[in-house]
Design a protein that fits this description.
Blueprint (H helix, E strand, L loop, with lengths): L3 H17 L5 H41 L6 H4 L9 H8 L1 H9 L8 H12 L2 H8 L5 H16 L3 H10 L3 H18 L15 H17 L1 H11 L10 H16 L5 H15 L4 H18 L13
């Protein structure tokens, strides 16, 4: 689920807060870093749970129709195609998924209006009308419908996005990754699937080690890295350089010098790409120029010790 670029971004976000804060408790900040990463999985499970709650909302509406004083024939014999959707039932009834949701105490019970709005939006769509009116009845048809309504009406539902923004400042950035992962989760489903969810880490032990080292070493090497950057920006006062640019360069320097198994080109490309998302339009060229110059120095001084995959140029 989380690739290395995203792990770098999460480290960057907490380092940015750490260097801005007067509280320089590294252990405390590191715990916050891993809490933020774990919350990405909470967001992932929360969105998967939405399908169960939307289905439940649909059932409530059908029951209300049946219990009217003078129900119509349609209310007495409603179209249950949405409620019986095989993929939504699969998500609702999967024990391992529900166990993980329960263990993390994830629930939408306190947000009934949000669930109602979501179902109303879906029910009013052309896709919903076409789906329940179609004679096609297969797992693939159900799956195609679920993927379509997720991409068009759930992932872009503004009240839902606002809800996530209120829950966590980091979820504003995380939701696009999680929505992409949800789409992949749905696309990979089959009728025989039992393990429905993706893991948070691709390699938990290795990824956690990478996060910890990058975070700690960037802090511990801060003064040294600052001098290296200052030496390449003599015509600039360091305070005038965007703080995010400085931080990204410090992380890149740390990664190049500490992680022997990561090729220099990979490190350079990763931080330049991150700068496009989180810094100024001119940052890419600026960061690239400074880091390229430092790489030449590191090679001359034989500071770049690379082994295994790290030897790849």
């Amino acid at each position: 689920m989380l690739n290395r670029r995203y792990l770098r971004i999460k480290v960057m976000q907490v380092l940015y807060s750490f260097f801005q804060s007067s509280d320089k408790d590294m252990n405390k900040a590191e715990k916050e870093l891993f809490r933020n990463i774990e919350k990405i999985y909470d967001l992932y499970l929360s969105i998967l749970l939405l399908f169960t709650d939307i289905r439940h909302q649909a059932e409530l509406i059908l029951e209300e129709g049946k219990n009217k004083m003078l129900p119509t024939q349609e209310e007495l014999n409603p179209n249950r195609k949405f409620i019986n959707n095989r993929v939504i039932r699969q998500l609702s009834e999967n024990q391992s998924l529900q166990k993980e949701i329960n263990n993390r105490k994830i629930s939408w019970q306190v947000e009934p209006e949000l669930i109602k709005k979501l179902f109303t939006t879906i029910k009013g769509s052309e896709e919903y009308t076409a789906y329940i009116g179609s004679s096609e009845d297969s797992y693939q048809t159900d799956k195609n419908f679920v993927i379509e309504i997720f991409k068009k009406y759930i992932s872009e539902h503004e009240p839902l996005l606002y809800h996530f923004e209120e829950k966590s400042i980091y979820w504003v950035d995380d939701v696009w990754l999680v929505n992409s992962t949800i789409a992949k989760t749905l696309e990979f489903l089959s009728e025989s699937s039992t393990n429905l969810v993706m893991k948070l880490y691709k390699d938990e032990e290795d990824d956690k080690k990478f996060i910890t080292e990058l975070f700690r070493k960037t802090i511990l090497m801060d003064s040294e890295n600052e001098k290296l950057i200052s030496g390449k920006t003599k015509n600039w006062e360091l305070e005038r350089i965007a703080m995010m640019d400085t931080l990204l360069m410090k992380m890149a320097i740390t990664e190049m010098l500490v992680f022997s198994n990561i090729p220099v080109k990979v490190t350079l490309n990763e931080y330049i790409e991150i700068s496009k998302l989180y810094s100024t339009p001119k940052s890419k060229m600026f960061i690239n120029g400074i880091l390229d110059s430092l790489v030449v120095d590191f090679k001359d001084q034989q500071k770049l010790v690379k082994t295994g995959r790290g030897l790849m140029e």
